[in-house]
Design goal:
Number of helices: 3
Number of strands: 0
Shape: elongated
Largest sheet: none
Radius of gyration: 29 Å
Oligomer: single chain
Length: 77
């Protein structure tokens, strides 16, 4: 519960907390880190699956050779 701001005269420690969820900061930081790491793991797994699908599609027939031929290299002048 936040403090009462009806009277600004007095000691700041008598006002009390000025924002909700005081004391929950560390729990929220831990949850955020867990969410952040979990999101990165899921993102890497999805990108790996997409990469594998694209590699499989290129390996069928001569698609890989055609894709390599389509790549342009920078030539020195």
């Amino acid at each position: 519960m936040t403090g009462n701001f009806g009277d600004w005269n007095g000691n700041i420690t008598d006002i009390g907390p000025i924002y909700p969820f005081v004391g929950w900061e560390w729990l929220m930081v831990i949850l955020l880190i867990v969410f952040w790491v979990g999101w990165h793991v899921m993102q890497m797994q999805k990108e790996h699956r997409d990469h594998e699908e694209q590699a499989r599609a290129l390996q069928q027939g001569d698609s890989l050779h055609r894709a390599a031929q389509a790549e342009h290299t920078i030539q020195r002048m």
